[in-house]
Amino acid sequence: MKHLFTTVFALLIIVSGVYATHNRAGEITYRHIDGNTYEFTVYTCTKTSAPADRPFLPIFWGDGSPADSLERAEIIFDPIKDSQTNIYIKSHTFPGSGLYKICITDPNRNADILNIANGGSVQIPFAIQTTLRISPAIEENSSVTFQNDCLQDACLWQPWVFNPGAVDPDGDSLVYSLVPGMGENCQSFELGFYEYPNQILPSSTNPPNTSMNLSIDSQTGTIIWEVPQREGEYNIAILVEEYQNGLQVGTVLRDMQITVMTCDNLPPIIEALNDTCVEAGQTLTFSVYADDPNSTNVEVIGFGAPYEVASSPADPVTQTGELPPVEATFNWNTNCSHVRLAPYPAVFEATDNGPGVDLVAIETMNIYVVAPAPENLLAEAVGSAIQLNWDESPCTEAIGYKIYRRIGSYGFVPDPCETGVPEYTGFVQIADLEGLESTTYLDMDEIIFGRETCYMVIAYFKDGAESYASNESCDQIKFEIPIIKKNSVGTTAIFGVDTIFWRSPIELDTLVFPGPYQYKLLRSDGYESPTGVVYTSDVQADIDDLPTSFISDNINTEDTAHTYRVELFSGGAFAARSNKASSLFLKLTPNDNQMGLSWREEVPWLNYEYDIYRQTDGSGPFDLIDVSSEAGYVDSNLVNNRNYCYYIVSRGSYQAIEENDTLVNFSQRICDQPYDRTPPCPPVFAGDGDCVEFTVDFEWTNPNEECVDTDDVTAYNIYFTPVEGGEFELLETIDFSGQTDLQLYFENSIAGCYAITALDSLALWPDGSLNQNESEFSNILCFDNCPIYEFPNVITPNGDGKNDVFGPFPYRSVESVEFTVFNRWGSIVFQSTDPDILWDGTNKETGELVSDGTYFYTCKVFSIRLSGLDPVNLSGYVTVFADRPQKQN
After folding, report:
1. Which InterPro entries does the record associate with it (predicted)?
2. How far apart are CA 403 and CA 439, in angstroms?
């Protein structure tokens, strides 16, 4: 029975194909059902008066399965346009992951479409295609659907504006483009066979100042044709691509038709609209204004994503039968189900009721629905941590929370479209909690005593959408933890000494943390969190009887900093810990007659001042040379190759009410010698090249005279590369800073690029070697050759010393050739790669003179150019007159 149906169905197509001049527009859409199963809906717009009709349509699923059949589910008639919309629905299960091209082809299009086959469209099959990508990397996806009619009318010499009203239920990013339509087996029309409507020439003279442009906004899908120039029917195809996280997940091709007619009408005008944001749960209301230059009745309607949501769609916007100006109202009671990362594109169309064709104006906008902020965030210090609590997000669709922290309050108030916590606020994300009910967090990550620590929380959603930020809540650690007051280098050595002081927690709740008490001191090399115990105190019943200092010896204070932390134990159990605090570590960077000092520390207090001490030649006292508020300093006016030693004393405070005394700490001592390691400024290079005489003339500036930071240039290096973009090699060195010009001579080529550098005086470096600093490259100068290579057309190889050999006239800038001479039968008589050629008229096989006559040659000439060897093909004829002696009778 199945075979019989297939045969009959195919026969119907063949028989009706003669009259099937009915297809005008259509598209294929789909929605995800479950797993790899999708429900497809096919829409075709056909001419009702045509004799052909399609109760069934063939469809190819693109997965290798045989052609399937779709049964028509519904017909919607439009008698005014002599058209009907046919709707076919069927589900299909695909075998697995892949990119599938779903195709429908049906004979034929209606006749006389001006931009298809020069109006011979009646012979052209109608085809539409949709693609579907199935992949584990893609969440369930449904295609776009369209809300605007696929049959449109336009007015001759008036702008035509259209928006398909594409709605994507998944909130994917959409990209729109105009493409040629499709024919048999969903093959795209070739340009020439298919022309865009604006390429059809008018049948009469254009009105002045008219534009024929046809364009589509790739983001909104709005099409503008400025202007239709010839009456008739036209075809366009709109390709809508869907993207998720940059990956194309599907496409829908909408094939549609435009009928251009003569009319006496001007299009209406609609006021521009701006993108906007609304908090979920609030009502978004605004006005849409339209006017019309013909003062005819104007209808304003709205369509797009806000009208297609499952829960609480936007109220219909329809203002009909009113004289302009017209005010329509948009109203949308939003809720949390509308929250998503992608905006909701909305389209507003004003249509007039003018003479002839009703013209339209369109405005588009994006509406973002943002989740409300989590409420009642409260931060409370608990020992050395801060406890956060907040209310559950009012949007049950939220899947978790992100927590942000900064030192000190910012007072962030988001703009209406500003979601999450912007980076410019200084807040940094510290945690990501999964689950709607995860509304508490204990921050134990190095909360700094004495400084206000502030937090904000946002809710986030499955698609990446984020709520507004919560209120800002702040607190600071109380004096319930040990406080390190000193981490100072006592002795600088491989086996050096650090001195550590701390203060006991004066606000410790002894009822919660009863005695006996004990301290442990932890240490790490560098700035990592301390983990190694270096000291354990005795156990004391009274916390005030515990020691609060430690001398850490036999550690390398020359080469690294050390970081310490104090832990308090109550009744043998951990009770509290201090913030970690590193020693102050100084580094030196020698330079020309100066020393760069930089230092690093990671401490919980704030250092506000640094005393800089210096000793010269490793003897005598250290002198205070300056005070800095920054962690860096340059000590100038020094003598190169002389030894200088330094250390830093920092002064700081916790700046807390309970702990406002000055904290003083010493860095290690470090010595080095300044030496000249500063390259001079590069010269400014200028020059000119003569490609005939093969000379290049250069001149340049002397950095000693032109650059304030350079006074010891002694020489110059000139660099060269034969091709642009090539690697430079040293060409010549000039050992006198006063020489600022040069002329170079070459034999056959000046092609290449040149640069110059400056070198300063020889200096003794710490390793005992003599070195010169070299500047960066100057500006680069490039010159090219002007090759020439030409041949005579006659040779007389008779041994009289005149024209005895064939070769080029004087040539230049040629590296090699591929030269071949042929006789009249096409046989090769001579070959050479020498640019001079020097053919004496002999045959390469026999060594004898060739016969007098005309010979054909080809020559590939490899000219030396800035871009490299440039092959040029030459060919021509040369006549050989050997002027041989006459034979005697």
Report:
1. Ig-like_fold, T9SS_type_B
2. 10
Q: What is the mean pLDDT of residues 57-77?
A: 94
Residue 11: its H or E element: helix 2-16
Backbone phi, psi, residue 440, to 5°:
-135, 150
For residues 519 and 546, the answer to whether their CB atoms sit within 8 Å is yes
Measured torsion, CA atoms of residues 504, 509, 515, 518, in degrees rounded to the nearest 10? -30
**How many whole angstroms separate alpha carbon 397 and alpha carbon 413?**
24
Residue ranges of domains in the chain, CATH in brackets: 2-203+210-256 (no CATH), 269-370 (2.60.40.10), 378-475 (2.60.40.10), 483-580 (2.60.40.10), 585-672 (2.60.40.10), 685-783 (2.60.40.10), 794-880 (2.60.40)
Q: Token pair for residue 488?
A: 């100072």
Who contacts 645 (Cβ-Cβ below 8 Å, separation ≥6)?
Answer: 614, 615, 616, 618, 622, 669, 670, 671
Q: Which two tokens stand for residue 410?
A: 């910012």
Cα separation, 705 vs 703, whole angstroms: 5
Residues near 462 by beta carbon (within 8 Å), at least 6 away in sequence: 397, 399
Whether 564 contacts 580, CB under 8 Å: yes
Residue 7, pLDDT > 80, answer: no
Round the CA-based radius of gyration of the chain to a whole number and report it. Answer: 43
Q: Is the pLDDT of residue 651 over 90?
A: yes
d(CA 658, CA 677): 49
Is 523 exposed, middle or buried (CB count within 10 Å of its CB: 0-12, 13-18, 19+)?
A: buried
User: What whole-number distance in Å separates Cα of residue 572 and Cα of residue 256?
Assistant: 81
Residue 139 burial (CB count, 10 A): 12
Question: What token pair was written down for 652?
Answer: 């700081």
Q: Could you give the angle at the alpha carbon of 486 between the alpha carbons of 484 and 492, nearest 5°? A: 140
Please give the C-alpha separations between residue 473 and each of 437, 458, 739, in angstroms, as whole numbers: 20, 13, 69
Phi then psi dihedrals of residue 4, to 5 deg: -65, -45
Q: DSSP state, 510?
A: T
Query: Do residues 462 and 444 touch, judged by C-beta distance below 8 A?
Result: no
Tell me the residue type at 33: I
Q: How would residue 6 be classed by pLDDT, with cut points 50, 70 and 90?
A: very low
pLDDT score, position 784: 93
**CB count, 10 Å around CB of 282?**
14
Q: How far is the C-alpha of 748 from the C-alpha of 789, rounded, in Å?
A: 13
Q: Are residues 27 and 131 in contact, defined by beta-carbon separation less than 8 angstroms? A: no
Altogether, the residues listed in the chain come to a count of: 889
| Dihedral sign from CA coordinates of 578, 579, 582, 583 | negative
Angle at the Cα of 294 (from 292 to 299), degrees rounded to 5? 45
875, burial (CB in 10 Å: exposed 0-12, middle 13-18, buried 19+)? exposed
CA–CA gap between residue 743 and residue 737 (Å, rounded)? 16
Taken in order 664, 668, 673, 677, is the CA torsion positive or negative? Answer: negative
Q: pLDDT band at 413, cuts 50/70/90?
A: very high
Q: Is the Cβ–Cβ distance between 645 and 622 less than 8 Å?
A: yes
The DSSP output letter for 463 is T
Looking at residue 487, what is its pLDDT?
97
Check whether the bond before 227 is cis (ω within 30° of 0).
yes
Provide the whole-model pTM.
0.70
CB-based burial label for 532 (10 Å; 0-12, 13-18, 19+): exposed
pLDDT score at 886: 47
Contact 498, 484 (CB under 8 A): no
Task: Kindly tell me the burial class for residue 611, based on how many C-beta atoms sit within 10 Å of its own C-beta (0-12, 13-18, 19 or more).
Answer: middle
Under 8 Å between Cβ of 252 and 347: no
Of the candidates 415, 427, 428, the one whose C-alpha atom is nearest the C-alpha of residue 468 is: 415
Cβ atoms < 10 Å from Cβ of 708: 7
Max CA-CA distance within the chain?
145
